[in-house]
Write a structure and sequence with these properties.
mainly alpha
Length: 97
């Protein structure tokens, strides 16, 4: 493999950390948003008893519509950070080979 092919291969193998962060953040954020609102619409005497425990980690979160927006923001930030970490670690492993 000549140098041009190696350079092209390195560029192709690299991940865009920002894109991974946004994709992961949206996945976690929308997931929590939908889960919360499905439970709100379902209703019942104790709405989202287990999901409501997230307020320990996400201050201000509750199983309500407003809580789902707050939860979306928290989950998006957490997912973005995790996605950036995955992208960075992957890129360093690819560069080290």
């Amino acid at each position: 493999m000549d140098q041009n092919e190696k350079d092209l291969n390195d560029v192709i193998l690299r991940l865009n950390g920002r894109s991974w962060g946004i994709a992961s953040g949206l996945l976690l954020g929308v997931g929590l948003f939908l889960a919360t609102n499905i439970l709100v619409l379902k209703g019942g005497p104790e709405v989202g008893k287990h999901l409501g425990l997230l307020r320990v980690f996400f201050p201000g979160y509750s199983v309500t519509f407003v809580g789902s927006i707050i939860g979306f923001i928290y989950a998006f930030v957490l997912g973005y950070a995790l996605g950036r970490v995955v992208g960075t670690v992957y890129n360093r492993l690819v560069a080290a080979r």
